[in-house]
């Protein structure tokens, strides 16, 4: 699992301004601790409720002041309805939404509900329940202004280490969860998507989870399960695809990109990124972040140069727009670059961060192998300075 909060006092990104916090989770295995820890076991998270009970509940930001509530029921007759309010047990608003399902070879998903609720007030706890019954859940909306705190976790999978990391995340009073791809490691075993949804529900039902896809979401290249289960606000951000989108939250504009979707100049994703960045109002959102799966800058031998073609296609867009920080996963080992552009240190380029440690073997599933083979620092400087 790659995980990143920017919080070490020694980390010069700890306080990006006097009122803005990105917090990096303490890395148990940084680039300076170069060995592979023993494997930890896979988790299977069963459903203990009835077929009509909501399961796999998660929420995501869905345009200004709105939240999307997503959950799954085995019972196809359960309505796609969310009741909510600001007092526990009192639901003064009822919203109906949409639903979908999908098939993947012999597997047929449950009923996947998506209900967009709002407008919501900032920094407020809302109480809600799904499907007209079921347990009461709650979430807190992000603030409207600084300070705001993000958690960035990538490549989570579903092992004992996932449990540990999420427990650490749950100890923080953060606002928004960012996930740069490789969610469930289902790898075409669709029941593992269900298990993953149940595993993360405790956390994903309380804070918005904003995700983008990694290579493990491709599953025969169609992203079928990912798109059905993790609907993100692409329509709200003028994108034609759930595989790339953007959103604003508390003074930040965040673009979530698709490393495995066409990014060449002239492609739909390229044109959308170009148009999206032009529209950014730096007075309203002085911070601009990008999140993607494959890092554009990476000196680790694992996945080295995989992001090169995307960088070469899109780096100018980031540079012209003065993107502040770019987060990626995939490598499962922490690395941070100074502000950089076109392979040279540049005070106007973004900071690139490959987020933290991994308990998953880089893109081979849930086995253990930290990415340890970084180029020597001197070589790094020669390559990127
Ligand atoms: Fe990956």
TrEMBL record:
It is an enzyme of class 3 (hydrolase). InterPro entries: Calcineurin-like_PHP, Metallo-depent_PP-like, MPP_PAP, PAPs-like, PAPs_N, Purple_acid_Pase-like_N. It comes from the Eukaryota. Its cofactor is Fe cation. Keywords: Glycoprotein, Hydrolase, Iron, Signal, Zinc. Residues 35-55 are annotated as: Disordered. Its EC number is 3.1.3.2. Coiled coil: none annotated. Residues 150-334 form the Calcineurin-like phosphoesterase domain. SUPFAM superfamilies: Metallo-dependent phosphatases (SSF56300), Purple acid phosphatase, N-terminal domain (SSF49363). The keyword Manganese does not apply. It catalyses: a phosphate monoester + H2O = an alcohol + phosphate. Residues 54-141 form the Purple acid phosphatase N-terminal domain. Belongs to the metallophosphoesterase superfamily. Purple acid phosphatase family. This is Purple acid phosphatase.
């Amino acid at each position: 699992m790659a995980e990143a909060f920017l919080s070490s006092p020694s980390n010069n990104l700890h306080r990006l301004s006097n009122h803005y916090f990105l917090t990096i989770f303490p890395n148990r295995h940084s680039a300076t601790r170069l060995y592979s820890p023993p494997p930890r076991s896979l988790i299977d998270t069963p459903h203990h409720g009835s077929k009509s009970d909501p399961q796999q509940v998660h929420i995501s930001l869905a345009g200004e002041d709105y939240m999307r509530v997503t959950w799954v029921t085995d019972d196809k007759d359960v309505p796609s309805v969310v009741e909510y309010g600001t007092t526990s047990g009192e639901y003064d608003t009822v919203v109906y939404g949409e639903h979908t399902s999908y098939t993947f070879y012999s597997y047929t998903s449950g009923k996947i509900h998506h209900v967009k609720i709002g407008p919501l007030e900032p920094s407020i706890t809302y109480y809600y329940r799904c499907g007209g019954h079921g347990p009461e859940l709650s979430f807190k909306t992000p603030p409207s202004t600084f300070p705001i705190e993000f958690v960035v976790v990538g490549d989570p999978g579903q092992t004992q280490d996932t449990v540990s990391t999420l427990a650490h995340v749950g100890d923080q009073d953060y606002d928004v969860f960012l996930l740069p791809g490789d969610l469930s490691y289902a790898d075409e075993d669709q029941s593992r998507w269900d298990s993953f949804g149940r595993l993360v529900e405790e956390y994903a039902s309380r804070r918005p989870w904003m995700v983008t896809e990694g290579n493990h979401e491709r599953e025969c290249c169609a992203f079928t399960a990912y798109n059905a289960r993790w609907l993100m606000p692409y329509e709200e951000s003028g994108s034609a695809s759930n595989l790339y989108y953007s959103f604003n939250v508390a003074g930040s504009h965040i673009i979530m990109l698709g490393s495995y979707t066409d990014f060449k100049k002239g492609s739909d994703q390229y044109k959308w990124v170009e148009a999206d960045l032009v529209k950014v109002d730096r007075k309203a959102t002085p911070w601009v972040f990008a999140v993607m799966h494959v890092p554009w800058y990476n000196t680790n031998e694992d996945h080295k140069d995989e992001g090169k073609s995307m960088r070469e296609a899109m780096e100018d867009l980031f540079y012209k727009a003065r993107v502040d920080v770019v987060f990626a996963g995939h490598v499962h080992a922490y690395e941070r670059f100074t502000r950089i552009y076109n392979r040279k240190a540049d005070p106007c380029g973004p900071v690139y961060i490959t987020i933290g440690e991994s308990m998953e073997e880089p893109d081979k599933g849930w086995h253990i192998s930290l990415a340890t083979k970084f180029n020597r620092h001197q070589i790094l400087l020669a390559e990127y300075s």
